[in-house]
């Protein structure tokens, strides 16, 4: 089965699944020693924005653009030192969250690959 990027959002269950994914992800981020230093203590607003972004990123409504404009993700992340270690920690949290949210294959792998490319693009600081 081939995954068509525009259909991932609907095919995985839309906003309910994105919410499960983001909630599971930030539960891990808030406890990860490599990530705690670059995230706020209260992750509520960060998670809300991530839900908007991932909705759009995986083919749902353009909620992020409607509220915040063009994502410009690299520019928005430049104030935070994102090292290879932090990228790997972020991806480990996301991989576990994809599993916890019970996202089925082939969607899980397709989503993780897109997120891996994004995480690689966000790195801005060497170890």
UniProtKB/TrEMBL annotation:
Keywords: Heme, Iron, Metal-binding, Transport. SUPFAM superfamilies: Globin-like. InterPro entries: GlbO/GLB3-like, Globin-like_sf, Globin/Proto, Hemoglobin_trunc. It comes from the Bacteria. Pfam families: Bac_globin. Its cofactor is heme. GO terms for molecular function: heme binding; metal ion binding; oxygen binding; oxygen carrier activity. Belongs to the truncated hemoglobin family. Group II subfamily. This is Globin. It comes from Allobacillus salarius.
């Amino acid at each position: 089965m081939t995954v068509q990027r525009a259909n991932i959002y609907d095919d995985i269950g839309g906003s309910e699944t994105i919410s499960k994914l983001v909630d599971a992800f930030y539960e891990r981020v808030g406890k990860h020693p490599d990530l705690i230093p670059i995230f706020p203590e209260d992750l509520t607003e960060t998670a809300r924005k991530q839900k908007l972004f991932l909705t759009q990123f995986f083919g749902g409504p353009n909620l992020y653009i409607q509220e915040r404009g063009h994502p410009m993700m690299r520019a928005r992340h430049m104030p935070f030192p994102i090292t290879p270690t932090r990228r790997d920690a972020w991806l480990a949290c996301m991989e576990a969250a994809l599993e916890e949210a019970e996202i089925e294959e082939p969607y899980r792998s397709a989503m993780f690959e897109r997120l891996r490319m994004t995480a690689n693009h966000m790195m801005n600081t060497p170890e």
